[in-house]
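Q: Structure for this?
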Amino acid sequence: MELLESSFNKLKHEKGQILISHNNLTKENDRLWKIVSKLERDCCPENWWKHSSSCYFISAVEKTWNESRQYCREKDGDLVIINSKEEQEFLNDNMKEGMKEIWIGLSDTDTEGVWRWVDGTPLTGSCRMWRMGEPNDSDGNEDCAVFCRITQSSPQHSSIRRGHPATLQVWNDVPCFRPMPFICERKQL
Ligand code: 2F8
Ligand code: CA
């Protein structure tokens, strides 16, 4: 009887210890999840750039517009949506030397002449940055938009560097099936 009682007390004590450990581990688990979720909010994946509240990826390979979009979506992003001239300048500055044209998340595939971003929002007045004469749907076959990188030899280059009002009118419509590099954007949580 005494032996049973002593075993019971021992087990009761062990149960208490286990409950305390369990509580401590639960607290530690919560603390670590908070760190993980902060890191997910603040960090971008490897080879992506953080800017403002987004992560950006500029591809080295070339794909059609649809394939590019699929690639970005597989990485929890989409082709880039450009909301400001400042974002446009950031992208231009981060494109690699030698890159001329690069896909952005803008197309008029659904309705000719109605340009929409990949999230379905229509292209609005203040942020339309078409090159002069574009979009022209050349040969009736241009439904996807590219960003034409401004280089030192571009006519816009000197005025940008002198800090003139933005002359970043650099979008063009081209055939969606052309292989091009592309820019993905992933909004941070
Ligand atoms: O490659 C298609 C592209 O060809 C020309 O630009 C190099 C056209 N520009 C003009 O006609 C001024 C683009 O509109 C056309 O998309
Ligand atoms: Ca065009």
